[in-house]
Amino acid sequence: MRALLRRRWYLLVAPVILGALAVLLPWLRGGAPNGGLLGAAAGQPRARGVLRVGMDMSFPPFEVADEQGTPRGFDVDLAQEIGRRLGYDVQFVNVSFDGLYDALQARHCDILISALPYEAERTRDVSYTGGYFNAGQVIVSRQDDTRVSGPADLASLRVAVEMGSQAHLEARRLHDQQGVALKIVTADSSDEALDLVRAGQADAAIVDGIAARAALHKGGLAIRGKPLTDESFVIAVRRDNPGLFNQVNAALNTLRGEGWLDKLADKWL
Amino acid sequence: MALRRLLQTGVCRLLASLRQQPGGWARAALCVLAVLLVLPWLGWAPQPVVRMGKPQTVTTVNPKMGVHTRLTDEVEEWKVQRSLEMVREMGAPWIVEYFPWGYYEPEKGHFEWSHADMVVNHAVNQGLTVVARIDYVPAWARPGQDSYRYLDEAHFADLADFVYAFVSHFKGRVPYIVIWNEPNLSMEWGMRPPDPASYTRMLKLCYQQAKEADPNVQVLAAGLAPTTAPPGNAQAMDDLVYLQQMYDAGAKGFFDGVAVHAYGGTFPPDDPPDPAVINFSRTELVHQVMVQNGDGDKPCLITEGGWNDHPRWTRAVTPAQRIEYTVRAYEKAQQEWPWCRAVALWAFRFPWPQGTYQDYFTFVAPDFTPKPIYLEVQRYAHGQPLDMGEQAP
Fold first, then answer.
1. Closest Cα in chain B, distance from residue A175 (Å)
2. CB distance B355–A119 less than 8 Å?
3. What's the mean pLDDT in A232-260?
4. Pair (A28, A128) in one structural domain
5. The complex's ipTM?
6. At what angle do helices B196-213 and B156-169 cross, to 10 degrees?
């Protein structure tokens, strides 16, 4: 037996080596939280110490370049805070909206933070974090008018919407498919729809979450009930970078748990 | 497929033998139940049964209304049918559809028409007039070239042969064809500088073959990309200059009409025509070039065009403006442009979300939800006032 083992020693060693490889390979390829050893060597953020954030800086108040070309906005602050907590310097890569996903796949940036809605069709290529701001349609009415706490309460009320918008579509859905007998009042923009509510020329408005939050700052209005639609903004990370995805998602969850995201929304919207 | 066929044959034989045994029916029923449970696991799902139905006609106050559909990549027949039903229900009698040469002639002389037949038959059954845009070069006709927009002159005859086959096959069903798309852009001309003389040689060959196949088919010169590119630009040539250079190269007599791409940008449809501006009324300048070359009696057909309401695109308008401009554009062509035969706006619906500004050109969402613009255009087409809700005071 001993002689046999001396001749076939590799039969004992091989399973040990294979087992070790099975544990180590995923880590080497990027399964580890910091992108893995090979990932780091291949230019992952940890290796460079820089997190490159792709965004289209033409969508205030989420991201816009000021006169000096400095990025400003909700997403800019969010990216910098995530970078700070993960120990990265943040570098912004300005890309037109339609080119964002191509820039990510071409590795011109590490993540996308650009008021991006979740798109199921893209999940073959990217992983999305949880939402950090819901821009879905909401009901807004005057602060002193407590008649409305949800869509059913809109029956027989005048509801202002931007003509042809998603809000208009939603108002029609409520009317046609859910039998809420509301009266649609059309305006040329979300802001005008909200002005009609302020002026008492409409009882409520349906607008997107961005317009609604912005309107709250002017006073006199309140968001009623839950959003009618979910249009959450999310952060996109390449699917082949699970380590970075886990880091960013965890940081975002922490920010959400601390109420930091709510404060950020109050600052910019 | 093979596995499924094997399974079906096996099940049939098993059922036949079970029926001949005592208590066989009960066992047969159990077998059927088992098969029904297994089939979803094999990836089989029941498909809606699609019946062609009775031939329909389009009801509209404006017979020039149309849309560019995108059914080339729509796989499921019920979705093709539903799209075309919704076009008819909107009140648009015209569609432009893309028929890529490379899809239908994968090998020289070998044609596969099944999907194209399905689309055309449903369109005809809905009472729609089909304008077929033909381009997309198969790999065998562009040896060594990556771009499916690349076709050298040595292979122009191959395209003309395809046009002959297409027109012969769809005789009586597709009355209009468009040869190529936006050849005044380098990217649409195989990444070469635009070359109107070369395109004219292509058009001549295709025209002759099309008429050989069916003298009644109407051959349209390609819709040109509206652009004000300066002379010498390698990427694009001004569409008005390009059309004139086609005439200079002898194109007259080798097309029955001109396809026009009439995008409005941020301008309303009544913004006056100006060679330095890209707007809907630029169509009048295209017609003017035709008049100057003695072709004023030939029609223009708008095969792409319209407005976009993307919230983040600088060339977009608001949704309300898009509705107003679109209805006015249809109306303008009907009332003021007797030489414009059809206005097919881009794009009725995509099979899936594009995730780009393109989604904001559409009338109907991929899941067939009609956008407000669809409903308003439908009201216009049926002679009803626009349903803007109660107007803001």
1. 12
2. yes
3. 96
4. yes
5. 0.71
6. 30
